[in-house]
Amino acid sequence: MIVLPALFFSPFAWAQEKTSNEYYQDLLRNYRSYQNLLEPFTTQKSRYLAYQTVATQADFLDSSRALILSEIEAISSYSLFIKSLLAEATKILNYKENYLYVQLDDELTYLKLAKERAQNLSSLGETNQLMSELAKHYEKISQIAYQTKSVVVLGSLNKVYDNLKVEREKLSFYLSELTSDTSNIKAAREKFTMLEKQNSEVDEILREAASKQKVDEKGNAKAVSEEIQNLVNEGVNKIRVIISGYQNIVYNLK
Amino acid sequence: MNKKFYMYFLAAAFILGITLVVIFYSHKFSPTSVGLPLPKVEPTITPTPLPPTPTVVPQLIDLERDLKTVEQDLPKVKEEKRLNPPVFIFDLGVGL
Fold first, then answer.
1. Where are the domains of chain A?
2. Can you give the three-state secondary structure of chain A, one letter per residue?
3. Which residue, among A163, A178, A220, would best test binding to B if mutated, counting the most B CBs under 10 Å from its CB?
4. ipTM of the assembly?
5. pLDDT by residue (tens digit) across A87-133?
6. pTM for this one?
């Protein structure tokens, strides 16, 4: 009985997961630290290449170790940012796929181990090997980031369009219920029918984007993400036209 | 003698002043009509109701409001540029 309230008021009970914005701030901070280490790294590299002595090699190894540790830290922040953004988006967008989370967790586990290895680096050859390994993992993380971009933007568009479809149904029902046949009502019905074409085009855009997203899982995520973004932009423009058209119909029926 | 007269005069003037003030205010705040009481006449013409304002169908008001909400949500559909991967170097560049 005494333990429960103590647990409730303990800092652990109130510890909350960071938001994506907070993770993004972490990423910016860690990436800045990484960039600050680039200049000393380049200087030590030049000295090592120029003199090839034990002392310059030791200094270069130290600066390389510091750089790779900072790199791992920044990549970890980036991965956590992607994961948090995906989590926030899926919560809102009701996105059911979880393979991206699993992949991100695998990468985060790798990064944790890589950090331990980086702390114990004892040669330039070992450092270079770890860097090449890290490059492959970063490639995977980047792919996940582009896939997340597509998930977020396409999910947002679907959500807005679903809401618009509800309004479309309501307006359609209202127009069908009108008994009088004034010129205004006839014109409103005709405009509504014309806007149906735009709706079909948005449906088609969403279908195309969704099929690209499925292919995205194996293909070039960056290129596919750009294609999906272009389709989404096209969809947004069409939805804007539809909303404006519906608003005009409602205004004239009032 | 003169002094006594002056005192009487002041007292009389004071009493007169008070009387005048009382009369003035009693007139000012009392109902003005003093005529014969008349039966209260109810207005015979009932006020005509105002012409009805054109009624707007509630469905249209709802539709207008909801369309506005959808319109406001649309700019939120945008590219999340923060997800673009930052650049890192993965090579020591010393030909090992």
1. 19-122, 155-253
2. CCHHHHHHHCHHHHCCCCCHHHHHHHHHHHHHHHHHHHHHHHHHHHHHHHHCCHHHHHHHHHHHHHHHHHHHHHHHHHHHHHHHHHHHHHHHHCCCCCHHHHHHHHHHHHHHHHHHHHHCCCCHHHHHHHHHHHHHHHHHHHHHHHHHHHHHHHHHHHHHHHHHHHHHHHHHHHHHHCCCCCHHHHHHHHHHHHHHHHHHHHHHHHHHHHHHHHHHCCCCHHHHHHHHHHHHHHHHHHHHHHHHHHHHHHHHHC
3. A163
4. 0.86
5. 888 876 555 567 888 899 999 999 999 999 999 999 999 999 999 99
6. 0.77
